[in-house]
Amino acid sequence: MTHVTKTADATTETVETDAGTARITWHEAKKARLVLAVGHGAGGGIEARDLTALAEVLPAHGVTVARVEQPWRVAGKKLAPAPKTLDTGWRGIWPALARPGLPVISGGRSAGARVACRTATELGAHAVLALSFPLHPPGKPEKSRADELLGSGVPTLVVQGGNDPFGKPAEFPEGTYALVEVPYGDHGFVVPKRADLSQDEAVAVITDAVVEWTGSLG
Description:
- Helix 1 (49-57) crosses helix 6 and helix 3 crosses helix 4 (111-123).
- The protein is of the alpha/beta class and 218 residues long.
- The chain has helices at 49-57, 71-74, 83-98, 111-123, 146-150, 199-216, and strands at 3-6, 11-17, 20-27, 34-39, 63-69, 104-109, 127-131, 156-161, 178-182.
- It has 6 helices and 9 strands.
C-alpha cells in the first residue's frame, strides 16, 4: 500500500517494507538523468543541512533527489535499530527508487552512508554517496568500519568534515573512492564561528562536490 502527497516542490510517498513503513520525499528534476537517494543518520532525520541542501540544488542539474526516512523515524522512535534492520528498510524502498527507470545513486549521511555502502552491489546501485561516513566511533579508531566503505563495489564519493570525530579525512584508508573535505566541519558539517569560511560556504562545498561528481557519472 502506497500513499502519495504532493506539494509545490516535493512529493511524499509512504512505502511498506519488511522493517515497517518508510517514507520518501521526492524532489524531482525536470529532465532527470539520475536519482540520488539519501538516507538520514541515527541521530537525526531528512531535515539535516546537507540532505536539505542537496534536495534544493541537485534537481537543477538533472538529478532527482529522494530523501528517505527509515521506518523507525516514521514510527516516531528515538533510537535507530540494528544495522541489519536498517538494511532491510533500505532494500524495501529500492523498488520505488528504481521505478522512474533511471540509474540510482545510493546515499546517506552517517548510519545512512553505511547502509548505502553495505547494500550497493546487491541492489544494483549506480554509485554511492557517503556523507559524514562514520569510520569509527568517536575516540575508538581501532573499531574501524573501513571494510564497509571499501566494499561498496561501485563508484563512491565520501564528503567528510575536517573535524569529524567519527573519522577525520586523514584517517581514511587508501581506496578507489573519492574524498572531499569540508574544512573545519564536524559530523553535521557545522563549522565554528572562528573558521575562515561561513556555514553557507561549507554547505556549498558539499553541494558543489556532489554536482560535479554526479555530472561525471554519465
